[in-house]
Amino acid sequence: MASAVNHVVTGPGIRTGRLLRLHPDRFFDPDPAIRRAAREIYDGIRDLPLICPHGHVEASMLADDTPFPEPASLLIIPDHYILRMLYSQGVPLEDLGIPSRDGTPVELDARRIWQRVCEKWYLFRGTPSGAWLTHELYELFGVREQLDGDTAQRIYDEIAERLSSPEFKPRTLFEQFGIEILATTDAATDGLASHEKIRASDWTYGRNRVVPTFRPDALFRIALPTWSSEVATLEKLVGGSIASCDMLVSALADRRRAFKALGGMATDHGVVEPYTAALSPQAADRLFQRARKGDASADDQRQFEAHMLMEMARLSCEDGLVMQLHAGSLRDHNPAVGARFGPDKGGDIPIAAEFTRNLRPLLATYGNDPRFSLVLFTLDESTYSRELAPLAGHYPAVRLGPPWWFSDSLEGMKRFREQVSETAGIYNTAGFNDDTRAFCSIPARHDLARRVDANWLGGLVARHVIDMAEAREMARALTTDLARETYRFPQPADA
Q1: Which of these three, 140, 167, 194, is where a domain ends?
Q2: Pick from 5, 60, 342, 353: CA 20 to 30 A from residue 329's CA?
Q3: pLDDT at 243
Q4: DSSP helix/strand/coil, 75
């Protein structure tokens, strides 16, 4: 009888003899001229350090440096791409071990979670999640079998054995990945104890490479029932009462200084729409006082957020923190999932976004200031060539962030380059960031981006738009230089 390796189940009723392998030319164009050029360009950037200016890896993981517990909690549970796909196919999140807020029992057996995911892995064919996890399994864990229901437990054991070795502790992997700098995303009310622990540790390599990013969103959402508790937490951190909008802004400026003292170089703001408006001090404070009484409406919150974005831009001119704006996501669209499991479980859905008018007040005030830098991200691809590229191609302060979430894929990255570059060029973009919670997917995400960029540049070379020397310079810029420049990161002496 043939072995399971030679009869791998990869989907309903489909059997194949393929082993897991990564073709050296994967994601390159089939046209021979483009493929040759892409391969040459990629070979020049594939081993450059990883710069991660925006992501959601927990600093506590690197502060504590404890071994990863097992494969499912490392590779499956943190990845909302995987969760949303499985949920869309009828797999309950309870069966995937996602902790519930309401006490609903959830699966605790990691092997069963892993088995369920592997049995459904055919769903990820042609998706970035499939490409990323294949890369992780092959390059990092040395797995050579296709992931499916028959091989699930063997692969689980193979990964678990590697995770038990010292070579797979978080700090060791951080160095092995060649990460030059990694920015976490931290609430304004985070005391940053994990970052302080890293700075005080004997981990010389990572001491100045793991930095916080300031995210004050929860303090701007004055219509939510959680707002008062967020303000109370901020009061404890700054050691004083916050009784007015001016006092809130002062407290946020204090926290920004604390983030910067630990190496922070950026702020991050997630909004449904990129609406900005300068309110008078009196009007802003009226909204603040209404929120203190619990009377703030959704429209009050929209106006308050718009005003606070203006205030954050002003503070960025003063303290030099780069301002990131993520717009166009309707968070927790599925109320049942949000109520039971909380945010970031795959229920965030893109909406249309308008930038030209919404950002005009902010850019009219700060867009020409050489001290200010604004990185724009969107889920609305229709804005790439119509609004974002012209804005970045005009205002000195504006840079375009790379494709985000649902556009963070092979075809999404290609569309971004094609729609943005002719108007804004590449030097008005911010390079690449992985924007991930799944630590071990970082190298895979960067590798995909490098291949996509090499292929796009290879096409320009093949069509004689640029020559190979220019392509190599542009590839390096897209891989490392633009991220360093945009986020004002120094180049390490040993890089």
Answers
A1: 167
A2: 60
A3: 98
A4: helix
